[in-house]
Automatic annotation (TrEMBL):
Belongs to the PPR family. P subfamily. Gene3D superfamilies: Tetratricopeptide repeat domain (1.25.40.10). This is Pentatricopeptide repeat-containing protein at3g09650 chloroplastic. Keywords: Repeat. PPR repeats lie at residues 130-164, 165-199, 273-307, 308-338, 344-378. PROSITE patterns: PPR.
Length: 523
């Protein structure tokens, strides 16, 4: 016989106490209680405070998606979570990679939409967004580079009587860096001073990191020096730098200067962040210094700074661009094993491109197959890299196999297949057609140019005509070929004549309509 359920107060206190322990064991036990109540459709026995505490505990424990599901479940059940609970989840989502920032925006909008339904503000006073909640969602906007939504949310802070604080402006600086508006940084600093907001070291850190991210090391250096000297006219320092025409490209001297700047930042109490190191790694790529890029990557990890997706892909780019795809592959494997980072198509493409630049087609194909096995499908960039590798390796037969795959995906219906449809671009189709024309695969070349025309792409007839005249103008002109040999190449000759007809070159007259016969291959 099943024991009767304890009363709601006891259940709520139990979940609250387990959540308040803030330990892995406590969280696991609280989750098991929730799971049991949910399976028995008794979740309504818990009050809003206990569920809110569980959401906070889950968020702090790194279980962000579970925390978000708790808040969504509360909203669905008619509960209004405390602002400290739901804003903690928004904050964690905003800082998460991949879809986290977008989910943070959705959750924030769901809560505020519910709050606005109540005319009596006293009823929802504990759930109304505060400055901390706005800082969390503004951080999500900054991470997305969504300036329009950032501006809209910043302006509506006054609706809930929220005043921007130092952290709000730090996030604004981050947004300026994200959307590449270096010119606005000085205005942000002036507004901080105008509003009488007390600047913290993090504000100055954000400014320095932003200028480092822009590659404007001179201004970053001046800013650090002004802080070291205790100057109070930092706005003037920034204004003067805005009037200078800076060249944001890196040289060997600039990399040395960046390294010195990192040391100076540390000396004045500004710890470099992942953005600073990503910028340095990217600068090393510009001067073909893959060893330097690896040094900065390792130094960043020694400082306890977790690499981001950008860190890994930038280091992969360093090795791929210097002809070291195997090292890029090692970095990729580390990225896969890092639970904080979700490997995306950009990383896969970086790896494929590294092998293709050396003409290592088989290795690139094995990476692409590995992609598919992981549920990631090649896009136009993936195929473009592979085509370039095929051309470099002089393996036109591979181009035929690739074209068959691309052709198949062009006709895919997204609603009827797990494989996404592909819309090829001019660069991909032109590169494929180029290989086929050079290899005298004229039937396939005609298929590709037909695909180009279907997608509104004008084929480069002038280029193909030049290739044909230079490489194939004397094809099929031998008078000494045997009858058997002539019979074998008859279909290829018909394809060549059709291609010449399309190019506008003199061609043999044929009375019947020329058609593609799948029984004959021009390979």
């Amino acid at each position: 016989m099943r024991a009767p359920h304890r009363n709601p107060t006891c259940l709520s206190r139990l979940v609250s106490q387990l959540s308040y322990l803030n330990t892995a064991e406590g969280l696991t036990r609280a989750q098991s209680v929730i799971q049991r109540l949910r399976s028995e459709r008794q979740l309504h026995r818990l009050d809003a405070n206990s569920l809110g505490l569980l959401a906070v505990a889950a968020a702090k424990g790194g279980h962000t998606l579970y925390a978000a599901s708790i808040v969504k479940s509360m909203l669905k059940s008619g509960y209004l979570p405390h602002v400290k609970a739901w804003s903690a989840v928004v904050s964690r989502l905003a800082a998460a990679g991949d879809d986290g920032p977008a989910e943070a925006l959705k959750l924030f909008n769901s809560v505020t939409k519910r709050v606005r339904r109540f005319d009596d503000s006293e009823i929802v006073k504990d759930s109304r967004p505060d400055t901390g909640a706005y800082n969390a969602v503004l951080n999500a906007c900054a991470n997305l580079g969504d300036a329009k939504t950032f501006h809209q949310l910043f302006d509506e802070m006054s609706e809930f009587k929220c005043e921007p604080d130092a952290l709000t402006y730090n996030v604004m600086i981050k947004l300026c860096a994200r959307v590449e508006r270096k010119d606005l940084l000085v205005f942000v600093l002036e507004r901080i001073i105008e509003k009488g907001v007390t600047m913290c070291m993090t504000t100055l850190h954000s400014l320095v990191a932003a200028y480092v991210g822009f590659g404007d090391l001179d201004t970053a250096e001046k800013l650090v020096q002004a802080m070291r000297d205790g100057r109070r006219d930092i706005c003037k320092v920034l204004r003067d730098s805005c009037n200078d025409d800076d060249d944001d490209t890196y040289s060997d001297d600039e990399i040395d200067k960046a390294e010195d700047l990192i040391r100076e930042m540390v000396s004045v109490g500004i710890e470099p962040d992942v953005v600073s190191y990503n910028t340095l790694i990217d600068g090393c790529i510009t001067v073909d210094d893959s060893a330097g890029a690896l040094t900065y990557f390792n130094e960043m990890r020694k400082r306890g700074i977790a690499p981001t997706k950008v860190s890994y892909t930038t280091l992969m780019k360093a090795f791929a661009s210097t002809g070291q795809p195997k090292l890029a592959n090692k970095v990729f494997d580390e990225m896969i094993n890092d639970p904080r980072v979700k490997v995306d198509l950009v990383a896969w493409n970086m790896l494929v491109d590294g092998y293709c630049k050396l003409g290592l087609v088989e290795e690139a194909k094995s990476i692409i197959q590995r992609m598919k096995d992981n549920g990631v499908y090649p896009n136009v960039a993936t195929y473009g890299s592979l085509v370039n590798g095929i051309a470099l390796a002089r393996k036109p037969g591979e181009a035929l196999l690739l074209w068959n795959e691309i052709k198949e995906r062009c006709g895919v219906d997204d609603n009827e297949s797990d494989v996404p449809a592909l819309k090829p671009d001019e660069g991909l189709l032109d590169a494929l057609a180029d290989i086929c024309v050079r290899a005298a695969f004229f039937r396939k070349a005609l298929e590709i140019v037909a695909c180009m025309e279907e997608h509104g792409i004008a084929p480069n007839k002038t280029k193909y005509k030049r290739i044909y005249v230079e490489m194939h103008s004397r094809m099929f002109t031998s008078k000494h070929a045997s009858r058997a040999r002539q019979d074998r190449r008859r279909e290829r000759k018909r394809a060549a004549e059709a291609f010449k007809f399309w190019l506008g070159l003199p061609n043999s007259y044929y009375g019947s309509e020329w058609r593609l016969d799948p029984a004959h291959e021009d390979e």
